[in-house]
Design a protein that fits this description.
With about 200 residues, this protein is an alpha/beta fold. It has nine helices and five strands, in the order βαβααααββαααβα. InterPro entries: Depp_CoAkinase, P-loop_NTPase.
Amino acid sequence: MSYIVALSGGIASGKTTIANLFAQLGVPIIDADVIARQVVAIGTSALTQIVKHFSQEILLANGELDRSQLREIIFNNDHERLWLNNLLHPIIAQETQKQFAEQTAPYVIWVVPLLIENNLQHLADRILLIDTPEELQLERLINRDGISESLANRMIRTQVSLTDRLAFADDIIVNDGNLAALTVQIDHLHKQYLHNSKVKNSYE
């Protein structure tokens, strides 16, 4: 199996931007958010259970999950957020393991926002965490999702603090909006992870 690098960071910290830069270098990306959308697609068991729990009102007119409505519910109700996490996390974990097993590249980037919150560190060979100024994180979240500052703040507060998150880091990538500096950091890490993969494989 490929060497697994878990890429994590707070919401709107730039995980997609960084993953895309790794992808441009030919690195496979396994994205927990993409998997999370796949497991609640129309016709899935998870979507059926979500509708049973929240009612048909949680669906859009085309039958898809109304993500914006669901987000409003779970970020204003800890009990509902816990219920949803307990439903989806085992399903997401199963699909993630399946995708890991299919990889043949030297290493993969596993984008997983709630790595620390869900205690998933043991599944990765190395942990790469994003260091983003909170004011920039807040601004990105408001602009990206078109939400209020109060909701954006609540979403950020539900996650582990940057200080606590960085304590788990093997590597830290600074994302302060400077794309050129970001690219340099990623090129360096790419070479490091290719080397790490060779070392791991030599012991297996």
